[in-house]
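Please supply some protein, with fold tokens.
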Amino acid sequence: MPKRMEKSLVRKLISLAAVVYPLLIATGSLSRPPRVLSASLFSDKIAHALAYFVLTLVWFFLLDGVRFRESKQTQNLTRVAVFAFLYGTLLEALQWKLTSYRTADHWDLLANGVGIGLALLLLSLTRKIWGSLKMKF
């Protein structure tokens, strides 16, 4: 596959993930949980942290394209973190207002924040590696 087409395909896949993944999070957050599901409080918070960890990575790669432009890195990381946290807050508010079978939980917001923070830490620690790959799409 030619390099240009490969870059375009990667960009399209990340764009698709950046739209579909938040919809999956919203569906999971707002739909009625299955009766069989008896997740512990701990596993629920791990799921929140993991979901927002991945969301932060996907949105960052969409916004920055793995270029890690030094001049915009902090700005892009900040934007992604704020939007991911606001998205989680919106979903918690919708759970509180729209559903009778879900409840808003400030611990969920904290778990979301932990996932976002871990993604930011990973991106910050690996920026030199990503930058040296010179992947632009």
Remarks:
- Residues 14 and 62 are 6 Å apart (CA to CA).
- The chain is about 80% helix and 0% strand.
- The mean pLDDT is 83.
